[in-house]
Design goal:
It is a single chain. This protein has 536 residues and is mainly β. It has a single domain, classed as Pectate Lyase C-like. It contains three helices and 48 strands. The strands form five sheets. The protein has a 28-stranded parallel beta sheet that branches. Strands 6-12-15-18-21-24-27-30-33-36-39-42-45-48 form a 14-stranded parallel beta sheet. The chain has a two-stranded antiparallel ribbon with strand order 5-11. A hairpin with a 4-residue loop joins strand 9 (177-179) and strand 10. It is elongated, with a radius of gyration of 24 Å. The termini are far apart.
């Protein structure tokens, strides 16, 4: 179960400290007070009771990453190459793949076989493999149904090109028992995880469509999420998940690095994966070190397209470690996303806020889109110890926004550097991008294009406060419908140290009317350029 009650506990205290817990508790309380359409926030990180308990710098700026070279390393060879031994079909274990028969027992047997035969390939011929039962873990109707466990696999390939795994989802998750002093309710009823991969290495999972049928499920309104993922890994290394379409699961599409043995997953490649319409996240990264995610899409999560609804945070990607050293062997980090899309998830499109639990995140050539009215208003927020966001595009309608820093001040001592470079921000309001930390931070904002086409007469501000450097950017601010006085401040730089070489443009017209840039007296300002109707 991934719940606020479990998050606001001893594990969170160890990671965030008392100050961080107080701050986030207040933030959660604020979020819960918002209208339902606005509540899909970064509500819980570090929140799965299954747990036992760097930047790419600009020229002239040195990397401060711990144990990692500066810049983006080349795309490495995918982990977990193809198995070299014989191939065995799941049909040899009795699976039918006809879309009608129940293949649950056959798939369990096949999974056990492949994990005891290193070097082989388990083949799912094209077809639809139904998993008819669901798990009932307690109460008078408890059954013995378990997840399909791949435990201890070595040097194997699990291949399903043209194969669809169809997991039964047509049941109700009733409020069977309570926790957290009665504040939270949970269900004994949960779906089967079709790929529950544990204690495995050098494997490849490729070619499947995996459908959790969350659109057919229902629940009592107050029921929290539990472990109902499409693909889950724990204590695994050197593996690749590729060419997989996972959708409509009752929790996450993909859950990487559960960390139940205080060991992070290592050397992971995710490529050409689509994870959509899952109730919680497209993919959660828990305890994982060195993961590349390439050419993948994480869209529409939190939207199960049925009565079931979603679970917070309903994000495309959530990087949410439960543990930090010495409680786990290595800190989560070395997280790289390239050429990926995150679109119209009801929560944040990408979120990582635990600075002292995440060492490095690098994003490149990615697209982030929040256009639907029920998308959470914060579309993007990462705040690792080191990070970079480069050559990405943000398409955000009003009132969605990008936060350039973290909200938990107690995490600031662990923060080193965050770079935003050569990105395109297409924003629906001046407040579509915000840097407004309570103290200056080493955030570099360089070479970006910021285009604001907001509601007519927008009187809000582009806030780039408390940053180390804002340089070489181009700003366009829409002036249509503006009816204010002679000058209107639109860009605020309070607390930012260096501001240089930026260009400001607008379509505001009319004699004696101008948008204004507010520069702090203590800032180093040089070579700023303005179009007509912009003033300093």
């Amino acid at each position: 179960m991934r719940t606020k009650s479990s998050w606001l506990g001893s594990r969170a205290l160890g990671i965030m400290g008392v100050g961080g817990l107080v701050a986030m508790s207040a933030y959660l309380a604020f979020r819960e007070a918002q209208p339902p359409a606005s509540r899909q926030a970064l509500a819980q990180t570090m929140n799965d009771p299954r747990m036992v308990q760097g930047a790419n710098p600009l020229p002239g700026n040195e990397s401060v990453g711990r144990g990692r070279p500066a810049g983006f390393p080349p795309v490495r060879a995918a982990a977990g190459g193809p198995a070299s031994g014989p191939t065995v079909s799941v049909k040899e274990f009795g699976a039918k793949g006809d879309g009608r028969s129940d293949d649950y027992e056959a798939l369990k047997t096949a999974a056990a076989f492949i994990c005891s035969h290193p070097g082989q390939t388990l083949l799912f011929p094209a077809g639809v493999y139904r998993i008819a039962p669901f798990r009932i873990t307690g109460g008078p109707n408890a059954n013995k149904i378990t997840n399909i466990s791949y435990d201890g696999c070595r040097d194997v390939t699990i291949s399903g090109v043209g194969a669809k795994i169809d997991v039964f989802g047509g049941f109700k998750r009733a409020a069977d028992y309570a926790g957290g002093g009665g504040r939270f309710h949970y269900s004994y009823s949960n779906s089967v995880i079709p790929f529950d991969i544990r204690n495995s290495s050098n494997f490849t999972l490729t070619g499947f469509e995996v459908n959790g049928n969350a659109d057919k499920a229902t629940r009592d309104k107050e029921v929290m999420e539990s472990a109902n993922d499409g693909i889950s890994t724990d204590n695994c290394s050197n593996y690749t998940i590729s060419n997989v379409n996972v959708h409509h699961f009752l929790t996450d599409g993909i859950y990487i690095g559960a960390g139940s043995k205080h060991t992070a997953d290592r050397n992971v490649t995710i490529m050409r994966v689509t994870s959509t319409n899952n109730a919680r996240d497209g993919m959660s990264l828990i305890q994982v070190r060195d993961i590349q995610v390439l050419n993948s899409n994480f869209n529409e999560n939190g939207r199960t397209e049925g009565e079931y609804g979603g679970h917070s945070p309903s994000s495309g990607i959530d990087v949410e470690p439960n543990q930090i050293p010495p409680n786990v062997d290595v800190e989560t980090g070395g997280v790289e996303f390239r050429d990926c899309q995150f679109a119209d998830n009801t929560g944040l499109q990408f979120v990582s806020i635990l600075t002292n639990a995440v060492e490095q995140i690098d994003l490149r050539h990615c697209t982030f889109r929040a256009q639907k009215p029920d998308d959470y208003h914060i579309a993007f927020q990462i705040f690792p110890a080191n990070g970079s966001v480069q050559d990405c595009t943000f398409d955000l309608s009003f009132p969605h926004l990008v936060y350039l820093h973290g909200l938990v001040r107690s995490s600031y001592p662990q923060f080193r550097q965050l770079v935003f470079a050569h990105n395109v921000f297409n924003l629906g309001s001046n407040e579509g991008i915000i840097s407004d930390p309570p103290e200056p931070l080493n955030i570099l904002f360089q070479g970006n294009s910021v285009n604001v086409v907001g509601p007519p007469g927008d009187r809000t501000y582009v806030k780039l406060r408390g940053m180390a450097l804002v340089a070489g950017n181009t700003f366009f601010v829409d002036g249509r419908g503006y009816s204010g006085g002679a000058t209107q401040p639109v860009v605020l730089y309070d607390g930012t140290r260096r501001i240089e070489g930026n260009v400001y443009r607008t379509n505001l017209s009319g004699p004696g009317r101008a948008f204004k840039i507010n520069y702090p007296a203590a800032a180093q300002v040089a070579n700023e350029r303005y179009s007509s109707n912009f003033s300093r």
